[in-house]
Design goal:
- The complex is a heterodimer of chains A (477) and B (254).
- With 477 residues, chain A is α/β, with parallel strands linked by helices.
- In chain A, strands 1-10-7-4-2-3 form a six-stranded parallel sheet, with helices on both faces. In chain A, strands 8-5-6-9 form a four-stranded mixed sheet, sandwiched between helices. In chain A, strands 11-12 form a two-stranded antiparallel sheet.
- Chain A is globular.
- In chain A, strand 5 and strand 6 form a beta hairpin.
- Helices cover 29% and strands 20% of the residues of chain B.
- A six-stranded parallel sheet of chain B has the order 1-12-7-4-2-3, with helices on both faces. A four-stranded mixed sheet of chain B has the order 8-5-6-9.
- In chain B, a hairpin with a 7-residue loop joins strand 10 and strand 11.
- In chain B, helix 3 crosses helix 4.
- The chains are: A alpha/beta (477), B alpha/beta (254).
């Protein structure tokens, strides 16, 4: 692994920027994914879909306590066991307890960011349970001992030949870079796991309050396998996943599919409403649902309900120019990367300043806001988080001095004019013959270590404006 | 009542209530109550009479690597299943012209849950037997089901605008039949073809059956084409965990 998710942030950025292959892989994939999203939204009344999806999500968050109550009641009536977990430790303990009670030795899991968030694999492995990721991309990153680097395309950072090599060294199959061969190897290995597992585990895309149903979106069919083949099924749902009605879930499923991959809908949409009845040929004998908080209610209390609207489609990730450069692992030990990751990773943490660099990993270009199917104003959230972090004096002292000096400068036209002339002169000197400034003296050196600055033009905008106005004066309009 | 400190449920709900109880707007940007049409307006469209819908359904399904055919009568269904089975099972594997026609076992829903009367006996005549799993937790049943190359099921409904079908599980209707085999044949009576998801939901909602149907089925699954992945450099691969081929046979109901 080239980017070490446990290294300090600056080191991670350097590692990512030093990896040409990573950037090629990211560029290819994210540009194609976002192109497909644009096409899929243009094929229908995209603005209306976004308006409706937003309205459904707002409605759900506004009525969260009542909906959770209704969901819990209906799940229980359907014969599901409902568990509430305040944090990751309570959630993993609940799953481990269910596994122990039923003598579970083997578990299969479909792709779910929430189980990454709570570190479920590690907790299960510690108690000696064999737990296997079954999404093709997740299976590959699990074999590699890496975390996923993208919300919907976990192995986006690896090229096909690397994956072929990995399967060769881990499974002893012939090395190949043919995706369909890689896929066939995984199908065989994972089919066996599905049929032998005692427990299936999934996240939850939407939980329908009125029916007590857990909806899981997949393309490969692993979501169907884990909810159908093992005798125990455990779903882990963030409390914000609840929606009022079946129609709402079907709407959001369409919004998520179009935004994630540009499909009309994902191949599979499994809606599970309880364990199988006597006489049913398949389906789990027991179904458990864990309703997880883990920082979500605190996020609401901190004034960031907007972030709870997210349906995890990764449209914002694919359009983000910063993500395209640095990839998911640079965001650290979190399954959430890109703009939404930069918002929710610090917010879900006990202390917003524990991931304080992330809200700064954005150029605030606004592409994410325009791509979001539930219209989350991500740049605004990033700015609010930045100011919160600065207010908590978590920003470096030098940065605070600089911000104060900046405020003094821009509030006076005379000081501003003088400053732009001086800075422009110095900057052109630093750029020399190049069009870019790639090295600066301290304290700016740290900034240009991972960024280039364009060489400023000889004439400032103010100077051009002055000249232009002078030239136009007296001409007929 | 348990105290909020010790009971996770109470403490989570109390925190959420407190967070929502403030008088500040909850969301940034427009804070007026957005118009929330109930139910939501349809996302996709498909217009026309029966045959026009069939055509849209078929084109949509083909565009996502599925396939379809339309029959004049339901009595042809058995022969068409046999033909598809020959196409998939024997295609390249046939060793010689004088090889005995093999008897094929397909994983299927129970005959009384399939939309074609007498389908089981008609299939027997063309060399196909149905294996209907009783209890998939049984080792032997599971092994046999996992060995099937073809699965045959009915559908709850089909949707023209996306080329999707929806299946419900229950007695006689295994989830395995549309999931484990590499090939899935879905039998779609024309009366079950709807223009959109929303049209079907609205029918069930207005007849008061929607919530009951979902809860009674235990699992309802929407299927839109064959199983696929684009995880490896966005290359499309089919048949990752579920079927590589999904073939819909549409026919007029008796």
């Amino acid at each position: 692994m080239i980017v070490d998710v446990r290294a300090p942030y600056k080191r991670r950025v350097e590692q990512a920027l030093g990896d040409e292959g990573l950037r090629t892989a990211l560029d290819r994939s994210t540009v194609r994914l976002s192109g497909k999203r644009t096409e899929a939204m243009a094929a229908i009344d995209g603005p209306r879909l976004r308006d409706q999806a937003r309205a459904v999500r707002e409605d759900a968050i506004r009525n969260l306590p009542g909906l959770l109550d209704e969901l819990e009641r209906n799940l229980a009536e359907n014969g599901c066991h409902v568990h509430w977990a305040r944090d990751a430790a309570e959630a993993t303990r609940a799953v481990v307890r269910i596994a122990e009670r039923h003598g579970v030795r083997r578990a299969v899991k479909s792709k779910s960011m929430v189980t990454e968030e709570i570190g479920l694999n590690e907790a299960m492995e510690q108690t000696g349970i064999h737990i296997v990721e079954t999404d093709l991309g997740e299976y590959i990153v699990q074999l590699a001992g890496e975390p996923p680097s993208h919300i919907i395309a976990p192995v986006i950072h690896k090229r096909a030949e690397e994956i072929g090599e990995l399967l060769h060294s881990k499974l002893g199959v012939p090395a190949t870079d043919d995706p369909s061969e890689i896929c066939a190897v995984a199908r065989r290995a994972l089919r066996d796991e599905f049929l032998r597992a005692d427990m299936g585990i999934s996240g939850c895309n939407f939980a329908v309050a009125e029916t007590g149903s857990i909806c899981v979106v997949t393309n490969e069919g692993n979501g169907r396998m884990v909810t159908s083949m093992p005798r125990i099924y455990v779903a882990i749902a963030g409390i914000e996943k609840v929606v009022p009605t079946v129609e709402d879930a079907v709407l959001l499923w369409q919004a998520a599919s179009r935004s994630a991959t540009g499909q009309d809908v994902s191949v599979y949409f499994s809606v599970s409403s309880g364990p199988r009845d006597p006489g049913h040929p398949d389906g789990p004998e027991e179904m458990h649902v864990i309703l997880l908080d883990n920082g979500r209610s605190r996020m609401l209390r901190r004034g960031y309900a907007d972030a709870a609207l997210c349906i995890r489609c990764a449209a914002c990730v694919n359009v983000c120019p910063v993500y395209r450069e640095i990839g998911g692992h640079t965001y650290g030990c979190t399954p959430y990367s890109g703009p939404i990751g930069a918002v929710i990773t610090p917010l879900l943490a006990d202390d917003v300043t524990s991931a304080r660099e992330l809200p700064f990993a954005s150029s605030l270009c606004g592409a994410c806001r325009d791509a979001c199917p539930v219209k989350i104003d991500l740049p605004r959230l990033l700015l609010d988080l930045r100011s919160e972090i600065a207010e908590r004096k978590a920003a470096p002292a030098l940065e605070r001095i600089a911000i104060n000096a900046y405020t003094a400068t821009i509030t006076s036209p005379r000081r501003y004019g003088a400053a732009t002339r001086i800075v422009g002169w110095i900057a052109r000197l630093l750029a020399g013959r190049k069009d870019y400034i790639s090295r600066t003296p301290p304290p700016l050196r740290a900034w240009t270590r991972s960024r280039d600055l364009p060489k400023p033009p000889r004439k400032s905008f103010r100077a051009m404006w002055r000249d232009r106005s002078a030239g136009q004066r007296g001409e007929p309009s | 009542m348990a105290s909020a400190e010790t009971n996770p449920r109470e403490s989570i709900l109390a925190n959420v209530r407190m967070a929502l109880g403030g008088d500040k707007p909850l969301f940034r940007g427009e804070d007026h109550a957005r118009e929330r049409p109930v139910p939501p307006a349809p996302v996709t469209h498909a217009e026309g009479d029966g045959l026009a819908l069939v055509k849209i359904f078929g084109q949509k399904l083909e565009a996502i690597s599925g396939s379809y055919e339309v029959l004049g009568e339901e009595t042809q269904v058995a022969e068409r299943i046999a033909a598809k089975s020959r196409e998939w099972n024997f295609g390249n594997d046939r060793t010689g012209p004088d090889q005995e026609p093999q008897h094929t076992e397909v994983l299927a829903w129970a005959p009384n849950t399939l939309p074609v009367p007498e389908l089981g006996s008609r299939l027997e005549e063309v060399g196909i037997s149905l294996f209907v799993p009783g209890d998939m937790q049984d080792e032997e049943v599971r092994r046999r089901a996992a060995g099937a190359m073809i699965g045959v099921t009915g559908v709850e409904a089909a949707f023209a605008s996306t080329g999707s079908i929806v299946l419900s599980s229950g007695t006689g209707r295994s989830r395995a039949a549309s999931l484990l085999p590499l090939h899935h044949i879905a039998l779609v009576p024309l009366s079950r073809l709807y223009p959109t998801f929303e049209a079907w939901l609205s029918d069930l909602r207005s007849s008061g059956q929607l919530t009951d149907f979902l809860r009674r089925s235990r699992q309802v699954v929407f299927v839109t084409g064959p199983s696929k992945s684009a995880d490896i450099e966005l290359n499309l691969t089919l048949g990752v965990h579920g079927p590589r081929a999904v073939h819909a046979i549409l026919f007029p109901d008796s």
